[in-house]
Each structure stands twice: as C-alpha cells, then as structure tokens.
Amino acid sequence: MPRSLRQFYGFFISSFKSLLRTPSAWVFGFAFPVIFILLFGFISNNSQTEIKVGFLNDDTPIYSTVKSSFEKVKIFKVTQEDDFDGLNSKLQNGDLDAIIRFNRENSIQLISNANKPENVSVVQQALEKANDQITFEKNSITAKSFTITNSEVNSRKSRYIDFVLPGILGYSVMSAAIFGVAFSFVSLRKENVLKRIFAGPTRVAPFILGQSFSRMIYIFLQNIALITVAIVAFNFSPRNNWSSLWQILVMIVIGLIVFLGFGYVVAGTADSEESVSPLANLVVIPQFILAGTFFPISALPDWLGKITSFLPLYYFNEAVRLISIDGLNLWDLKVALPVAGLMAWGVVIYYTASKVFRVK
Amino acid sequence: MPETSSVTINRTPKIPLKSHKLKAKKTSDENSLTIYKKVKDLKTKLVRPIIQVKNLKKSYGDFAAVDGITFDVKKGEVFGILGPNGAGKTTTLEIIETILAKTSGSVLVDGLDIDVYPEQVKNIIGIQLQSSGFYPKLTLIETLKLFADIYNVEIDARHLLESVNLFEKANSKVDQLSGGQKQRFSIATTLVSDPKIVFLDEPTTGLDPQARRNLWDMIIEMKNKGKTIVLTTHYMDEAEHLCDRIAIMDSGRILEINTAENYIKELLSRGFSRPQPKLGATLEDVFLDLTGRTWRD
C-alpha cells in the first residue's frame, strides 16, 4: 500500500475509534438537536388539534346550514370572510387547512391544503355528512343536494416540524463540525500529540483527510439518526420522500465539508482549549439565531435580514427547505444558488484555514 | 549482496586505496572486486560519523538558544548531552530530529542533509520527546498500529510490548498508564520503525529509582543491538552509567566532549578532591536493595 494511503487509513481509523469513545461528541451532534426536535415536534403536534376552515361569505340558505354544521363540531375552527383573495393567501401560508366556497347553484368548491391530507379528509367527510343531512331533510334520496368539487393547493410551511427540522439539521452539522474539530485539534496540539505524530514521516494531507473523513462519517450518521427520530416520532415527511431525502443527505455532506473548514480556522486561531469556546461560539451562535433556524429571516428587520442572508448556515437552511418542503431538486436554479453560495464559503474558508492552521 | 562476512581485512587505513584500485583493474576476478567494495564500504562506515553537526545556531530574536556548536556522533555509541535546564539540549536535539528549524549551521544524519532530506531522516530515526501525548482513547496496541502506519512498517505489537514489559496492558488505554509505564511505552513507539539512531530527550526525568534503572537497562539493550543513541540528561549518574562520550553543554555552548572517565581523570589531575569521604554505596542502592530490582510500577 502506498505510504500516504496507509497513513490516511491509519488516521481515519484512529480518529473514528477515538470519536466513538468520546461521550461529549454525542452531545453536540445528537443530544442537543434531539431535544430541539422533541420540543418543537410536540409544539407542532399540539397546534394541530384544530382544523382551520375558511368560508367565503354567501347568502344562500344552504351556506348557513353547512356553516353552522361545521361550527357545531369542536375540532373545526371556522372563519368567514367576504374576500376570496384574503382566504386564499391564508391558505397559501398554511394558516387555513381548507376553504369552502359556494359556486352557482348547489355546487360547493372545496379548496384544500395538499400537505394536510388527514385534516382535509375530515373536512370532506364533514361536508358529505352535511350534504346527507340536507338531503334527508329535503326528503330526496336520489340526488345529493350539492356537488362537491375538490381542488388541492400546495401551501408552504404547513407544519412547524417541517420548517424547523432543516434548521435543526443545520445546527447539528455546524456545531458538531466546528466544535468537534476545534476542540479536538487544539487538545491534540496542547498535549503534544501532534508534535509526536509529525516528528515521524507524517504527511499533512493524509492526516487532515483521515481526521476529516472520520468526523464527517460520524456526524453524518448522527444526522441520519436525527432525521429518523423526526420521521418516526413526528411524521416528518419531505416533499418527494426518497428523492428529497437523498438530496438532503447530499446537502448535509456539503454542509459538513464547509463547516469542518470553519473548525480548522478556529483550531488554528485558538491558543488553548479555553479560547476555543468563545471563538467557536462567535461563529456558531449568531448563525444559529439569525440564519433561519427557528423562524424565517423575513421576521427580521430588513437590514439585518440582508446581512444574514449571506451566512453559510442560511444557504444551507434555504437549500434544504427548498428540497424538503417545496420539493425542488438540487439542480433547480432556485436551489443551486444557495448551494453555490455555500460552496463559495467553503473555498474561502479552506484557503483561510491553510494560512492559519499550525501543528505546534 | 553475497555474504562475505568471514572475510578478514588485514589492511590498516593508512594504505591508500589507489593501489587497490589498480589491482582490481588488472584481474577480472569478480570475488576480489566485491571484496574491494566491501573494504571501501567498511572504511567509510568506520570513519564517517553517523551524525555531524557543524556550527549549529538557533536564535529566537536576540536570544541564542544554541550558540554555534560542533560535534560528531559515532555509529553505535551512546552519546550524551549533559547540562542544566535551559542549556539548549532539547533545542539541539529537536533540530537534529528535523522537528525544529535551525537558524544556521549544517547537520548531517547518516550522510543526509536535514535541510534537503527531512523525510528520509525521519524515516531512519526514532524519537522520544521530553513530554508527549498519544492519540486519545486508543489502546496501546492501537497506538502502536498507528505508528506502524505512519512509518509504513510491519510490526509484531505483542513482541514490542513484551520487550518493554507492558504486554499485560496491551488493551489498556494510554491515558491509564503510570509515569514509568508511559515512558516505557514511549520507548516502544520509538522502536516501531527499528531505527538506526534513537534520540532520547531526558528519558528518566520524573521517574522513581527502579523505573530509572529499568530504563537504563533498556537503553543498553538498544545499544547492544547496534543502534546509535543520543540522549540528553541533567542527571550526572545517568550520563556516567550509560554514555560512551558526554558533551557538557551550558548556555547554548558545548564546553567539552569527552568520556566520563577522562573527565574525572582530568579533574583530579587539576588538583580537585572530594570534600566528603565517599562511602561504598548510596541511599539509592539501599532503597533498591530493600525493595528489589523488579519491574515495579
């Protein structure tokens, strides 16, 4: 085996074993994120105890009958508006699960949120029941009182868990990569382990690559575990299922590579293990809070939003959300742009790392 | 290369090789050509020191840690650099080991210029640093395997651990070893590549008397295997016990290079005499006798 390859393999195995035997490596990459998932997953579930139905105001007698039949059922939260556009934009935003509109004579249009089939089927059943009720009262069993047409609409950000999971993945990847690399390397340097290793004919490339690879695989596995928890416990469902899923995994790999670079910059800059914390936090915390982990950056004031939309974590979150929620692909332009932004960060950060990184 | 180990050379180095060359040209006998080559090889090996340091300097700004030192180390000897803390011993060693850059001067290790062939030099030497850590959370065997990967050699990890009497700890983590055990393990990692030259930086500092003696035995064993050993120490008794030649170093300069015996002879000839009468033994001998010279940790 050529020497470089053998060294790469040796460092890869040693680093991986070391990671598996380090309990704290679990904390950043898995324990914290899982707590967030559970937290927001439960919040997410809670807010689904009501089904929001919007009625477009109509003066037909059937309208008030149907509407009152809905209002009698506790699970429905009924709102009424005179303007269809108002209702429609609420539906688009996910604030409504369905709109009921009365068209012409005896035709009801049901416009529903495609992301919430369980809720919509309940609405449909309720409508059918109301229909049966009216038919019964009219004593006509041959024809239904009104026809129901159903059209589906894709609305964004339907469930909070679907919005927040990409943010949590981003946080997990970023913090595990940066803290992991920074603490590990500074500790290796301080304990004179690097000195001993580089006293031998160690080549830099196999060393760095072996370490990075082992850490990448380790964090990657952690993230698969996180996604599994989200799917199993809270029914997280990316838009195009497996197609979205593998693309999310690709994004995780890209994000990992970039954030590992940040870790090396911190490792090269920090003098001791104590100074790793503030430096690493400086990189992690602003992004964690501002780059759209828990709330979209549209909630920030304009000027702040403009700045944070250049952060690498924002590019990661954007791309993963476009894939997961909107069902776009990596090669679609809308997704390729943030991915390119993320990669550009990667180039800059690795160049900086090569200037800053030291063995002593 | 054919084995000609039974050949005895009666020539003394005084005879110039030129006449020998003429003879080789005359005869077409392959055997004598091989002998000629062997003689030249031997002569070179006997004459050329395995380490040559010329006017080595290392400065940190205005401060000269190593202030122009020159010395040679012969193949197969145990060469000691003795001096107080801050003398520049570790700096000198680390420069020769190619892990620290020098300011000026030249260093040849087994004929290789350390500026031109640092990786090759690293291949043929073994290093024990004054304080070094090992990759966290790995067992002794896993650590040895990592070093085998670094040096691209095949090792018998068990045999290596046995030779430093750490075989029972093969599956323990490095962090769990005591001071003496760590030093012994350190020696084991140094020997992974079976190097020609071994550098030991203060090998017994911080160890109890038994561990020190055990380490001395291991160093002598290495010498008996034909290795060249360069060590630094601030223990006089260690230098006296182990070293063939000792360089006394202070404030970045070498004051003198000599054998222990000659040093003492010269000192006595200058009129020095010990103020106290020397007893036949010391307290250290008493301790060792009471507790037994075993591999106690």
Write the SSE topology.
The complex is a heterodimer of chains A (360) and B (297).
Chain A: H1 3-20, H2 24-46, E1 51-56, H3 61-72, E2 76-81, H4 84-93, E3 98-103, E4 107-113, H5 117-138, E5 147-153, H6 160-190, H7 193-199, H8 204-234, H9 242-269, H10 273-290, H11 302-308, H12 312-324, H13 333-356
Parallel strand pairs in A: 1-2, 1-3, 4-5
Antiparallel strand pairs in A: 3-4
Chain B: H1 17-26, H2 30-47, E1 51-60, E2 63-73, E3 78-82, H3 89-96, E4 104-109, E5 112-113, H4 118-124, E6 125-128, H5 140-151, H6 157-163, H7 179-190, E7 197-201, H8 209-224, E8 228-233, H9 236-242, E9 245-250, E10 253-258, H10 260-269, H11 283-291
Parallel strand pairs in B: 3-8, 3-9, 6-7, 7-8
Antiparallel strand pairs in B: 1-2, 1-4, 4-5, 9-10
Helix pairs in contact in B: 1-2
Give the key terms.
heterodimer; A: 360 residues; alpha/beta; abc type-2 transporter like fold; 5-stranded mixed beta sheet; 13 helices; 68% helix; elongated; B: 297 residues; Rossmann fold; 6-stranded mixed beta sheet; 4-stranded antiparallel beta sheet; 10 strands
Summarize this entry quickly.
With 360 residues, chain A is of the alpha/beta class. Chain A has helices at residues 3-20, 24-46, 61-72, 84-93, 117-138, 160-190, 193-199, 204-234, 242-269, 273-290, 302-308, 312-324, 333-356; strands at residues 51-56, 76-81, 98-103, 107-113, 147-153.
Structure description:
The complex is a heterodimer of chains A (360) and B (297). Chain A is an alpha/beta fold and 360 residues long. Chain A folds into two domains: 3-44 and 159-356, no CATH class; 49-153, abc type-2 transporter like domain (abc type-2 transporter like fold), CATH 3.40.1710. Chain A has helices at 3-20, 24-46, 61-72, 84-93, 117-138, 160-190, 193-199, 204-234, 242-269, 273-290, 302-308, 312-324, 333-356, and strands at residues 51-56, 76-81, 98-103, 107-113, 147-153. Chain A has a five-stranded mixed beta sheet with strand order 2-1-3-4-5, sandwiched between helices. In chain A, a hairpin with a 3-residue loop joins strand 3 and strand 4 (107-113). In chain A, helix 2 packs antiparallel against helix 6 and helix 8 packs across helix 9 (242-269). Chain A starts with a helix and ends with a helix. The model of chain A has no long low-confidence stretch (mean pLDDT 84). Chain B has 297 residues and is α/β, with parallel strands linked by helices. Chain B is built from eleven helices and ten strands. Chain B has helices at 17-26, 30-47, 89-96, 118-124, 140-151, 157-163, 179-190, 209-224, 236-242, 260-269, 283-291; strands at residues 51-60, 63-73, 78-82, 104-109, 112-113, 125-128, 197-201, 228-233, 245-250, 253-258. Chain B has a single domain (56-291), classed as P-loop containing nucleotide triphosphate hydrolases (Rossmann fold, 3-Layer(aba) Sandwich), CATH 3.40.50.300. In chain B, the strands form two sheets. A six-stranded mixed beta sheet of chain B has the order 6-7-8-3-9-10, with helices on both faces. In chain B, helix 1 (17-26) runs antiparallel to helix 2 (30-47). The interface between A and B is medium-sized, with 24 and 26 residues.
